[in-house]
Amino acid sequence: MYEQLGLIGCGLMGSSFALALKRAGLVKRVVGFSPSKNTTELALKMGVIDAIASSAAEAATGADLVLLAVPVAATDMTLRAIQPVIATTTLVMDVGSTKRDVVNAALQTLGNRLPCFVPAHPICGREVSGVQNALVDLYVGKKVILTPLPETAAVQLQQARQLWTALGSIVSEMSPQTHDAAYAAVSHLPHLLAFAMMNSLESQADGQQYLSLAGPGFRDFSRIAAAEPAMWRDIFLANRDELLAQSRQFQASLHALEKLIEAGDAASLQDSIRQASQARANWQHAPAASSK
Amino acid sequence: MYEQLGLIGCGLMGSSFALALKRAGLVKRVVGFSPSKNTTELALKMGVIDAIASSAAEAATGADLVLLAVPVAATDMTLRAIQPVIATTTLVMDVGSTKRDVVNAALQTLGNRLPCFVPAHPICGREVSGVQNALVDLYVGKKVILTPLPETAAVQLQQARQLWTALGSIVSEMSPQTHDAAYAAVSHLPHLLAFAMMNSLESQADGQQYLSLAGPGFRDFSRIAAAEPAMWRDIFLANRDELLAQSRQFQASLHALEKLIEAGDAASLQDSIRQASQARANWQHAPAASSK
Asked: How far is C-alpha B137 from the chain's CA centre?
């Protein structure tokens, strides 16, 4: 049971975390900060937070648990602001989708409070954002990746594992480097491709007509294209090198398929599609994918 | 009420059509043909068909309704086989995902029975195929595009409209050219991209590890990559020019995003992502996308 959650950022991720923590009976009091007054007032009204702080540092003051749920580009500034008020026993986590930049920000800002920080990335989200879309079940059955630093304290790391597990998440650990390479491939690249496809349609004279004819396959493929622009801007820039490397790999595979289509090489085309189809069918049945 | 459906091809699409027609009380008897004995025997056991034909021509003989639910590459051969047994009053349809090639095949094979033929494309499918995955509700709430020829008889066209509407589908009409251009953009291209992404992951040493970390966004984006290889081989080859044109358009949009990421141009990057995000968010609420 935590005495006080200092919630910095009362958007979808942060508010869902506060709701889940309250339902699990793991926190007595949530003090929230957001740059937008409308957001904190709505969070208060919805019972997501119990008190409004006027700054990140105020939200973290006296908290034994601090969650940063801010755009990744704001991590540096936020850690710098709360560093003076963190106690040695406080557990500090973030929920950012990239981890090397977050770890670098922590190294540069947290000083003697670096052991308190456990970088975290819950693998979930929605195409809608904001406190008004918070879900108490958002983290249930979802993967949460922790990317501890060598300096991370064993106590805080253990607390982080227990906390996410208590919320129903499936916790695993890896290095920030491994995390960023993996999610460039299976999350950041798909978002980039979905955005590019929508922009391509928008750029065509008949694009709106084409869109009106799209069916369920398009619906699912393009769902992630509705994601929040500012968040994905930050992710793309923070993980630029890994993302561009994945995009190059992808384009090589795309060009290989295009060449088979151009050449009318039916047998090799079928082989290549079968490889892709089997890889996807196998993934569906992988234990790691069993969560919704 | 039709006396006899000649069902040529007892896979997912054909079997689901027969089941839906039977439930709606629109057919007395279904005679099915498939090159695979296992398939027709299972279709008979499941009550999808009432009798097994030993050839496409036998299934069509005496039928007042014929559905071709065969790979698009087999359309020409199948139409040629059934032409001699079609009556002037028979309604003949296909369910192919490309339409210019189907129309060309009809022009070359059907002769004086060309007026019987109403090319159709139901916008639905599953990532699993075969009679064992047939769904009586597959066509409910789904778009069905009819691409009649100038030679198509008004009677048969009207029958086709009424039939699909009775099954709960949303029927519209357009030219084969418009159809193929539109579905290159909103169906064939997304499939090509999903296959290429899976192949790109498979080609990487750490691909399996990356896949094990993928979450719900990846799940939905890649769902269509599990589609049937032979079917998509045929679609890609049949609609090659439109598909390659869409792929080029897509790559231009992808390169534009890549350049903004490389340049670290946060403001323009956010604008470009916002354009994509808004286009997708608007699509979700379009009436044309209200069907599941």
From this structure: 16
